[in-house]
Every structure is written in structure tokens, then in C-alpha cells.
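Lab meeting notes turned into a lecture example. A postdoc, R.K., suggested we walk through two folding results consecutively so the class can see how the record format repeats. The first protein's sequence and C-alpha cells come next.
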Amino acid sequence: MFAFLAIFFLFAALYLGFLLTSKSDKIKQEQIEIDKLRRTVDEVDEQAKLVVRTDIELNKTQEELDKKIIGLYVLQKISRSISTSLEERLIYKSIEMDTVKELGFEKSIAVSFDEKEPKFTTKIHLGFPQNELERIETFLEKNREFWVDIIKREKTLSSFSMPEGLMVREEINKAFGVTSFIISPIPAKEGNKGFLLVGTETLDVPITEGDEELITILSNQLGQSLENARLFEKTWRTQQELEKRVEERTRELTQALEEKETISRRKSDFVSSVAHELRAPLTSIKGYAAILSSGKLGILPEDARLRIEKLNKHSDELVQLVNDLLDIARIESGKVTMKQEPAGLKRIVEETLDLLSVQCKEKQIELSSHIGEDIPHVLIDIIQIKRVFINLINNAVKFTPKNGRISVFVHKIIGGVQVDINDTGCGIPADALEKIFNEFYRVDNAVNMQVKGTGLGLSLVKNIIEAHKGKIWVQSKTGEGSTFSFTLPHI
């Protein structure tokens, strides 16, 4: 019996041991599961926190993005407003209080600094009572070096970028009555520079980096618009001054031209009067000389006859001089009407060369013409243009030495015909080229001392050509010959 009980208790003990062991394993397994579950819960919690943080960051980013979009829209509106103004006062006035509030600020002030005086001047003050401006300007003057340094550095400064506890930051907050601020210099190449300050009075509206960027853009736009306005004003003043000078100069030139025309008219009238007065006695002198030369009053001694012939010859020269003076005076006064008709220059050139060929043969001068086949007809007074050719070629003959060459070129140009009369004569000094067409002017050289002349031929030629709406000029070098050129418009 005792043995049976012992065996029973032994089996009971073994069974209980088995049960305890099995229970312990189960408890361990459950503990493992609980640990797994706890880790899972922790991971889910971390993920939830991350989601919340991410959501908060996304909300902040979205808010910042919305704020930037609104700010850019406001800047665009301000830009359109200030870009259409060319007055400094209107440019500053474009920045209104509602616009500042749209950017997220409650106060704004723009200050200009005049380096010449030197002095700070408030241009706009939004959100600042009028009675605070004097205190603010006093604060600026007291800390002038600090504000001038900010303006010169042209770098935006804000309570966001300045270290907390900095005395300057607290002084600015107190002076302008704000809790946070942005100071952005207004750049300018010329004229007064300054700065723009915006701020908030609310602690829960912090300044961000994006706000700095927007205000920097706004101040740059202000500076550019002010620069454009100053440039426009400078240009306008310059234009007004220029117009005034042009008007004064035009008045002076008009007066001088009127005086010149008056003098020219008086000169022409005087010359015409004198020439007419000279004609009568010259006619009498020539008449008496002709009678004496003819022997109607008796045969003259040889010496007397020679002197009468010289008198007759010099009288002819004087008559020619008088006629030239009269012609110049009439052309200048517009009293001579050119009898213009279509004509070709080839025939006029040939007749002139034929007329002067004898003189050229005597001096052994080669005389030639070169006329193109496509030369158009010109509207001219044939007699007057023939006088031009005779005068110019005759001058060339006078100043071209023996075995020289004279060439006449006629060629077509745009709008008309050009004639060039070239010689291999003594040439004209450079300082005489501008005077050569003046009345009574003669070049001071050895040839002119031997060749007689009145100095009226080229002046007469110039007047005839200009009466035909043409131009005349000369190219020459001493010792290398001359080329007289003139143009005539075609029909």
C-alpha cells in the first residue's frame, strides 16, 4: 500500500512538474508575443508622430508657400503701380497701407537720406501716428552712422537674422514700436538713397526668410523706379535746356541770316547802281575812242593811235567787268530768270572746246573731252551754262603751263549729271580753296601776277550753277593741278 502511494505521488509529482514546465513555456511564449506587440505599438506610435510632424511641416510649408504666392501677387501689383509713375512722390505713394497688410505687416516706413545736408527725410509712414515721426527721425539722427552703414552696404537686415538679446535689435523694436522688423536698403546709382522698414506688433506673427526676400525685392523695385524717375527728370531737364538753346541759337541764326540777306541785298543794289552809273561814261569813252580810231576827226599820229587802241581795249575790259558785276547782282537778287530748256551737254562742251582751241594750240596744251553715251538731258539756260564752261576752261588754260593737259569729263550720277574739268596747272593752295568762289578773290601766286583778272569769274559761275539747283566745288594741290566739278539735276 505504501509502495502504491509512493508510486502515485511520484507520478503526480512528475505530472505536476510537466504541467509547470508546460505552463512556464507558454508564459514565456506569451511574453515574447507581448514584447513583439509592444514593439509594434511603439513603431506605430513613432510613425504616427512622424506623420503628425510631417503634416505640421507640410502645413507650415503650405502656409509659407501661400504667403509667398500672396506676396508675389502683391509685389506684382505694386510693381505695376510704381512702374507707371515717373514722379518720386507718386512712386512712394503707390505703397499703401492695405498693400503692406497683404504682405503680412502692420507698419511700414520709407526714409531717404540726403548726403549733402546730411539729413533723414520720411517719405511714407504707414501705421505710424504723425506725432511719432519726430521721435523716429531723432532716433535716426542719433544713430546716423548705423543707418548710413546699412544704406551703403545694401544688405537686408531683420529681427529674424539678428541674434536675440542684441541691444540694437531691442532699440529698433522700441523706437519703431514693433516686435519684429525687416530693414531693406533702397539702392540708387544717383541721387538720395534710403531704406524701407516694415514690422509687426504681434508676437505670434514671426518674420521668416521668405519675408526678407519679398521686402528685398520690393525695395529693389522702389530703387529702380526712383532711378528711372530721376533719369527721366534729368533727361527732361536736359531736353528743355537743349530746346531752349536751340531756340536761342535758331533765333540768333535767323537774325544773322536776315542781316546777311539785308547786307547782300544792299550790296547787290549798290553794285547794280554803281555798274549802271559806270555804263554811261564807259559808253561815251568807247564811242569817242572809236571815232578817233576811225580817223573821222583826222589822222592820228602813230603814238596817239596806239594809245587810243589801248584805251579802247581797257574800256572793253571795264565793260566786261561791269557786265559781270551786274550779272552777279541780278542772279543774287533773283532778278535774272534762267530760260531753262531741255538740252544735252555734249554740244555745249564741243562748241566751248572749239572756241578755246586756238588758245590751247598757242600754248601747246592738249584739250580733250570724255562724255558718256548715257548722259541724260538737263534743264538749263544754254547761254548761261556755256558761260560756265567758257569761264572754267579759260581759267584752266591761263594756269596750265606749256605742254599741259586739260580734260573735260561728263558722267551720269544719281539725280543728275556731273562735270569735271581737270588741268595739270599750278594748282591752288589749301588755304585758298574755301575762298576761291568769293567775289574779287584771287590766289596770291606768280601766275596771277602775270595773268590779268577781276576775281569775278568763279563767283559768277557759282551763282549760275546754284541758280540751276546744282553744286560746284574744287579739288586741288599746289603743283599738281586742279579739278573743278559741278552738278546739274536731270529733267
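The second example is placed directly after the first for contrast:
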Amino acid sequence: MKKLLVASAVALFGLGNAQTTPGPIAKGTTYVSGTVRYSSIEDNNSDTKVDDFEIVPTVGYFVAPNLAIGAGLGYASRSVKETDTNSYDKYTRSAFVVEPFVRKYWTLGDKLYFFGQLSVPMEFGTEKAEENFNNSTTSDKVKYNAVGVSIKPGLDYFLNKNWTIEATIGEFGYNTSKYDVDGAKNVNNFNFGLNLTNVGIGVKYVFSK
């Protein structure tokens, strides 16, 4: 029987002069946002536990009406531990995250906007594999770099002049990882689709001039 505990939060805070009536978001608007996410999954059948953590503050600036550029800087980690009677295997990954992006908004209706975001996520980190048997531990550590391209669609709704709700649904993307090991091949991943199980919800506070 699987035991799943997922706690996920996305906190977004905006700063600028966005309108509360239909129309373009003005050039010169600046916003600050951030993502904080944590999940923990336990599988009692295989005695496995997986922990994921990510925190990425983001700053964006509207260089033209409804067109913003920006970047996120943060940290991400993952831990996978499988336990047996006299042993355990543990894998950990930690990385510095950089994610420049371009975001375009389109007005749909009263206070409602659709947006598409193109980003280039990058990671610079380490992976460590650890094996313990009868209290004897061996480990191996390697550095890696990862870069990708991601497109995320979403909706942004202005509740009033200070509060908005933002949602992203799914992702279209590609990612490749390179390890600092002689002869190691790149690892490529593709992610395509609008998936209702991959929905991000955020609340943004806007400071009007």
C-alpha cells in the first residue's frame, strides 16, 4: 500500500502598475514571484521514500505591453532511499537553478488573461549514490549540468487591483543532462502535454502606483 504525502505551494508576489480592467499590462511593470514546492512519497511495499524540494524566486519586467522578460534563481534537491533488513541504497541530487524566461499575455475578458511562457531552465549540481550493507558504506559523487527548453500555458485572473490568481496547466519541454565523467553519455528527456495532474496554482499580490 502506498502512502503519499504531497505538500505543494506556489507563492507569487507582484509589483507594478497592472490594470484591473481589460487591456494590456503596461510597459514598465515589474513583478516578483517565487515557487516553493515540497513532496514526500513513501512506498511501504518496496520500503522506498522519495523527497523533493524546490525554491525558486523570480523577477520579471514588462519590456512592452503584455510582454515580460525575467529570470528565476534558486535551489532544487531530490532524495531517494530504499531500505532493506541489513542495508540501504540512497540517491541524492542537489542543484543551483537558473531559469531565464519570456512571457506573453493576451486579454481574454474582464480581468482575465491567457499567457504563454518560454523558459530555458538550467541546473548546476551534484548527484551522489550511497550504498550501506552491514554498516559498511560506499559512495560515489559526480557533478552534472542540465539545460532545457520549456513552454507553459496559463491563465491569470485579477480578483481586484491588488490580488490575482494564476494557473499553469501542463508543459511542453526538452531537457538534456551532461555528467562530469569520462565516456558518460548525455541523458535526454522530453515532456509534452496538457496534463490536469500537473497544474500549478499561484496567488499574486500587485502593488499599484
